[in-house]
Amino acid sequence: MQKKISIAIHGGAGTILKSEMTPELEALYTQGLKDALVAGYKLLEEGASSTEAVIAAVAALEDNILFNAGRGAVFTKTGMHEMDASVMEGKDLGAGAVAGVKNVRNPVKLAAAVMRNSDHVFLSGEGAAEFARQQQMQFEKDEYFFSQFRYDQWQAIKHSDVYALDHSKENDPLQKEKKFGTVGAVACDAAGNVAAATSTGGMTNKKFGRIGDTPVIGAGTYAHNHTCAISCTGHGELFIKAVAAYDVSCLMAYRKLSLHDAMNIVVNDKLVKIGGEGGMIGVDGTGNIAMLFNSAGMYRAAKSSDGTQVVAIYE
């Protein structure tokens, strides 16, 4: 029997306030979310796997300069772009992840290649780049990743030890306004298989090859058919400490909680207690979707074959 097909996507969470968004920019973000949603959902409708759907949705967000992943990745301390991504499928716990990759157009596709075409789960830096070349991944020059907005952001703090979580105000180097730039997708296909994918450019002005939760299986991304698929966005260090994505799965498995209730405990209780700001999207094996966050907003969208369709930014 064909089950309900569902997909949810996010484009980051944080202090996203309507009062600070121009109508033009809001329209662009909304369209970007819709485009990515359609890219993934269309594949589900055609009978593709949840894995193919989440990869397509995340790749669409990576190609959109508005989001901090792929083309829109932020600048590091040295003025480079270092990107992280991961993919996981719930059917057999297949997983692939990359960290600190440069010039790869779609890090999520590289993470998928690690899952499918290597005996490994996690590749980083130059080794990941070498593998990307072997897999004939598309590379782009530095100019492709240049965004004036991101560059100005970096210029404002590059001579300090401050790192910015994402688009901060220039006059606010202490980050009272936090935005966690990550993109992700979760889906449930007609066979009831779930999958998750997440991608990010990390933090503006980050140094030492810093890696957040995005490529860490169990922290920023997790999928298991018996429970759920989760993609996170937030202050990565805290999501790693909380093993946030896997914790939702555990609460569903061991305490028999629903997707929404398990996510609610992790997002609005466990993470809050340790100062972990951000959010997550999730889907279970029957196609139920939840999108929760403890910040002022989260770029998000969802669509299911039961008629559900949501595109939202603010609380």
UniProtKB/TrEMBL annotation:
Signal peptide: none annotated. Substrate binds at residues 210-213, 233-236. Keywords: Autocatalytic cleavage, Hydrolase, Protease. The keyword DNA-binding does not apply. CDD domains: Asparaginase_2 (cd04701). GO terms for molecular function: hydrolase activity, acting on carbon-nitrogen (but not peptide) bonds, in linear amides; peptidase activity. The record marks 181-182 as: Cleavage. PANTHER family: L-ASPARAGINASE, N(4)-(BETA-N-ACETYLGLUCOSAMINYL)-L-ASPARAGINASE. This is Isoaspartyl peptidase. It comes from Panacibacter microcysteis. The lineage of its organism: Bacteria, Pseudomonadati, Bacteroidota, Chitinophagia, Chitinophagales.
